[in-house]
Amino acid sequence: MQRMRFTVSVLCPLNPLPAMCAMGLSTVIRLRDKRNDPLEIRGCSETALLSLLEMYKSFSPKPASQGLPPLDPEACRRWVRKLLKYAENFLAWREGRVIGHASIMPDQEKKDGEFLIFVDRGHRNRGVGRALTDVALRRARELGLTSIWLTVEIYNFRAIHLYKNCKFQTCSRDDCERTMVYTL
């Protein structure tokens, strides 16, 4: 497995990975994907709404999983705004365009969080999803969460492969989807 190289544009001379934990909105993680193409991962705020909506506007397949992202543009806008308001969000950028989005919706009472991730079709299988997942899991740990869970359609083999490589475990399954959990 090819490891990606990280460069963080904050003062962190020895090890850039801790900076991912304390990732503020001004933190930029610069790395290269499996094809050696540059990308950046940043925290996300309301200011990135239009760029994020642009990614979802051209997202394929529509909807990708469990009705998400919503097909209707106004429903998609409401869904993204809700994520930006209540969740921890991270964006992968390439050449000024959003190519991936990861989100953790924390539940502080249960000390867990729901994980969502979407990567533009042209950038899948290049390590973008793995990088976003790593950043999100580190942030979940910083928030004091004890586990992260997600649901995935049983035929989404590429996503399931990513989650298993990131050490998510299947905890339940039915005819349509499985629930997977990562213990922090």
Overview of the molecule:
With 184 residues, the protein is of the alpha+beta class. It has a single domain, classed as Gcn5-related N-acetyltransferase (GNAT) (Aminopeptidase, 3-Layer(aba) Sandwich). Helix content is 28%, strand content 32%. The chain has five helices and nine strands; from the N terminus they run βαββααβββαβαββ. The chain has a nine-stranded mixed β-sheet, with helices on both faces. Helix 2 (49-57) packs across helix 3. The longest helix has 15 residues, at 128-142. The radius of gyration is 16 Å and the shape is globular. 31% of the residues are buried. Mean pLDDT is 86; it is low at 5-21.
Rg, rounded, reads 16 Å
Number of strand elements: 9
- Sketch the major β-sheet: 9 strands, mixed
Number of helices: 5
End-to-end separation: 23 Å
Calculate the mean pLDDT score and round it.
86
Number of domains: 1
CATH class: Alpha Beta
Low-confidence stretches: 5-21
Which strand order do you get reading across the main beta sheet? 1-2-3-4-5-6-7-9-8
- By CATH, the topology is Aminopeptidase
Q: What is the CATH architecture annotation?
A: 3-Layer(aba) Sandwich
The helix fraction, in percent, is 25-40%
Q: Report the portion of residues in β strands.
A: 25-35%
Order of helices and strands: EHEEHHEEEHEHEE
Looking at this structure, what is the CATH superfamily?
A: Gcn5-related N-acetyltransferase (GNAT)
